[in-house]
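Thought: the user wants the 3D structure for the chain below. I'll pass the sequence to the structure tool as-is, report back what it returns, then summarize two notable features.
Action: structure_tool
Action Input:
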Amino acid sequence: MKLKDEFLEIYKNNITRTGAKELLDWLEKTDFFIAPASTKYHCACEAGLLQHSLSVYHVLMEKHFEENTDSKESFAICALLHDLCKTQFYKVSSRNVKNEKTGAWEKQPYYSVEDSFPYGHGEKSVFLIERFMRLKASEAMAIRWHMGGFDDAAKAGSFSISVAFEKYPLAIKLHIADLESTYIREKHTSAVAH
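Observation:
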């Protein structure tokens, strides 16, 4: 099964609240399904964002889903959409790189950041989702704080992240799933695929 087909199947089978269809229609008009997940770290390749989103979903469901207390819809929303902020965020640029064998300079593609709406990371994803579909408080907190200590507010000494993790178990579960996906499960590629 192709990654996009897998994403659509999980999305359509689990996310049914008002606005879900409109959000998916919007995603189809963006670069979400072909965008990288980063410029040079994890999944820095075509469809890397899609690959990462699915990886986080699988880790979240395999390791953290509790049948009697968790919602499949909430898990699908948080995992599949936590990095929506990376939609329309990267662009393919080129730079000159010296070929070590020939000594000639060659143009090579790479991803650069072009942030037209600099609203932060997690909060931007929450904002974009809520343009179409209301989030539960636990979902908004999970998506907002999925970066954990890598988030600028957490680095600045905010206690909000600790409160969110204590109050909303989904927030810590998403953060852990994101970490495992990024640093353990995903292949670290940096090639721009065309």
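Final Answer: Structure generated. Residues 3-89+118-185 form one domain. Residues 12 and 121 are 25 Å apart (CA to CA).
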